[in-house]
Structure formats: C-alpha cells, structure tokens
User: What shape does this take?
Amino acid sequence: MDVVGEVRRESGGDGVEIVALHGEHDLGTLPLVRDAFEAAAREDKALIIDLSSAAFVDSSILGAVLDARRHAGDAERGFAVVCGGASEPVRRVLEVTGLAEELPVHPNREAALEALAVAPT
Assistant: This one.
C-alpha cells in the first residue's frame, strides 16, 4: 500500500485537466493538492478529480475538493469526481459525509468526461 501521497496532473483532452490522487492524502499533501486544483483553474480548464487510486483522504483534502468545486461553479467550468476503484476508506468517507450524493461522482474517467461534454455551459 502506498503511504506517501502523490498528485498527478494529466490532460483529459481539450479544456479538461485531470488531477489524480494516489496513496494517502492529508495536511502533509494538501499544498500539492491545492496547487494542482488551482493550476487547472488558472488555465480555465474543467477539472476532474480522480480518487480511484487514493488509499486515504482526510477532511483537509475533502475541503480542498469542495473549494475546487465551488471555484469551478463560480467560473462556470466543468467539475467531476471519479471514485470507482477507490479504497474502502475513501468511499466510506464520501458516503459518511454525504459528499457521495452532493458531488458529481462518477465510476470512471470515461463517465466523468462524458458528463462534462454534455453539461450545460
């Protein structure tokens, strides 16, 4: 199991940035996570946050996800979360906090990209 969290920025195609979180994420990785989310915003790209390879996320990371969603909404940019294949602790925290119902959560990147393509602008 990954202990140290890693943040990867990837292109999701034209106008879409994917930020994938791998391993465990908490206050120690929060600056990296926020920087990646903010980079997508500066580039005026839709944002997909991929939690599929995350082993753990704490409340600080969830706060960053919520901030990213708010900023995307304010700027009328697309936003989606991918959670398929995520570890049980990650799925559980999304369920317990109610974020699984509140956030646009998709089972895979393809579904998230499709949702962004048909989302109203």
In short: The chain has one domain: 6-118. The mean pLDDT is 91. The chain is about 45% helix and 30% strand. The beta strands are 6-11, 16-25, 46-57, 79-82, 105-106.
